[in-house]
Amino acid sequence: MNLLELIEYLRVSILDDTGGLGIDWSGISKDDNEATLLRWSNEELTQNINEAIRQVYRRILPVKDIVITIPVVAATHTYTLDTSILQLLGVKSPLTKLPLSKLDIEDIWDLPQWDTAEGDPTHYIPNYDTGTIRLYPIPIQTDTLDLMYYRLPLTDLNWATNTASPELREEFQIPMLNYALFLAYMKDEANTNDPQKSTNFLALFNQEFPATSAYSDNRKRKTTNRKIRYGGLVQNGTTKKTNKYGSLPWDPYF
């Protein structure tokens, strides 16, 4: 499905937000006078769909790639990762023809002279929080690193080119829209805000795409042996989580 078809599905099948009889909602821009006929603009729904797609990528890691190459400079141990990278699967040096072994940041303390040792790198330490990769030992010559990784979409959908399709397999596209609906019903206006519907659509999304992404794996590793408390109320048999933004139905991996 392309973007226009995805938004048509939302408007006609679920949101019932087409502007009324005789209205061509697909020709209405957020800056047009007719925009007041719609509860959600086409641009808003596009933004929600983009975020829903990103959530799917984070949770099920559907796209693997090996395109990015990082130039390595002598005496420099830390490099910036491309913002599209969710999780590194492998790092290889074309110079040595060997793959580098992965270490967690805590493990570097066990390496001899971890902060001063020099040579051809044999290990890499990814830090997804800072978006960097550190090499050990510190490189002594110019090189490159070839990366294999899971990534986010390379481009967002744009209402101005609404015939474009998401980089997401067809069978995931309709279930993905549950997250877009979760966001739509969180819109803080009298005729759009519906916490119960928002909670229900988030639950449907969570059932289809369990939170097993690079982010949640990283979170689990950091919170091992820690007690995690979630504030919230049980309402109609459903836990309603809270966060610093208030008592809203909230995805802990959002």
Explain what you see:
- This protein is α+β, with helices and mostly antiparallel strands.
- It folds into 2 domains: 3-61 and 154-223, no CATH class; 64-151, no CATH class.
- It is 28% helix and 20% strand.
- The protein has 5 helices and 10 strands.
- The strands form 2 sheets. Strands 1, 2, 3, 4, 5, 6, 7 and 8 form an 8-stranded mixed sheet that branches. Strands 9-10 form a two-stranded antiparallel sheet.
- A hairpin with a 4-residue loop joins strand 6 and strand 7.
- Helix 2 (42-60) packs across helix 3 (170-184) and helix 3 packs antiparallel against helix 4 (195-208).
- The longest helix has 19 residues, at 42-60.
Features:
28% helix; 10 strands; two-stranded antiparallel sheet; eight-stranded mixed sheet; 254 residues; elongated; disordered C terminus; alpha+beta
